[in-house]
Amino acid sequence: PEDCPPTAEAAVSKYACQRRTTTGNNNKIFTDAFEVLAESYQFNELESRCLGFRRAASVLKSLPCAVQSLESTHNLPCLGEHAKVVIEEILEHGLSFEVEKILSDERYQTLKLFTSVFGVGPKTAEKWYRRGLRSFSDILADSSIHLNQMQQNGFLHYGDISRAVSEAEARALTSVIDEAVHAITPDAVLTLTGGFRRGKEFGHDVDFIVTTPEPGKEESLLHNIINILTKQGILLYCEYQPSTFDMSELPIQRFEAMDQFAKCFLIVRLESSRVEEGLHGDEGDSRGWRAVRVDVVSPPLDHYAFALLGWSGSTMFDRDLRRFARVERRMLLDNHCLYDKTKKEFLAATTEKDIFTHLGLEYIEPWQRNA
Ligand code: DCP
Ligand code: MG
Predict the structure, then answer these.
(1) Residue 350 is part of which domain span?
(2) Is 94 exposed, middle or buried (0-12, 13-18, 19+ CB in 10 A)?
(3) Which of 57, 145, 151, 348 has the largest count of CB atoms under 10 Å?
(4) In terms of domains, do 186 and 295 share one?
(5) What is the CATH number of the domain that holds 95?
(6) ipTM for this prediction
(7) Do 330 and 279 fall into the same domain?
(8) Which residues lie near ion ligand 2 (Cβ < 5 Å)?
(9) Are 75 and 36 in contact (CB under 8 A)?
(10) Active site residue ranges
């Protein structure tokens, strides 16, 4: 690939929501290294350094060509001195010694292993590490450790859910959920969201948004879906979170937190016979099924566009949409709504395009949001 001409780089925005980032990452060798550094900082609770490397990775992902010299990164935003040292090391040696050191570090390896379990976050992983636990068998053999339902199921289905979900599997699951939804209400709307909506070939789970034009029915819709999957005998695990959404709350109380719509975190049994190209990996195929992590969120129809934009990601794209809204437009954006602080009013939207228009941003297609 050609080296990036400096003139093109001058146009790169510091906001991910003003960049078009497809799944074709030309700078994987650098962004993989940055992501290791970011994760390591996260494990050490150095959040701003973590974010710095995530931003740096996001900028390189948007470039139309591979970085081949340090000079060509000159006009790029979000690349600090440290990131440049790493780039230089990789350009010269093909790898970063700092990153290699992290990858072979016992603490990093252990926290990475523990957080790969569904229901185990960095805090729990750290607690277990400090107790001297280093492997899954250490955890399962320690009688003083209480695993919650989610973690128990995380261990139970670990082999399956730690394996990537393919696009064919995501399509098969879409038809499974779609059949359930339409058995309940023919006018319900189901959308595949998350990484698969952005055109990713593989994901760690499958994300859906479902809603219905009948006001107030979206929550019972989710209950009904859960009941149908249970009757079919394919619901292996379900954590249901009821809606806590209240439009009368001041907008400021809602921003930053996770959204308040009714949602469920599931583990679903996917039959091989439903997947056109077979199951991803051979293990599942010989058994005839595999377990898949599925998330379903159910917002009321008038908040659907905001929820869709939030759940489509990427995380960095969303983060920068909110930051852009706040800093450049004096507006507050989250998964529920958009609030104009100057006009002191909520701005309605029925499509994602409406939201971009309110923000005065060019529309970015879902497959260009892999920031
Ligand atoms: N999201 C959210 N609120 C949550 C969980 C997720 O707004 N409680 C958003 C952030 C993500 C998107 O939804 O951009 C989907 O979350 P995932 O963790 O599934 O991320 P992806 O689908 O982008 O990646 P993967 O391929 O790993 O599933
Ligand atoms: Mg996902």
Answers:
(1) 313-368
(2) exposed
(3) 57
(4) yes
(5) 1.10.150.110
(6) 0.94
(7) no
(8) 194-195, 203, 205, 207
(9) no
(10) 205, 207, 295
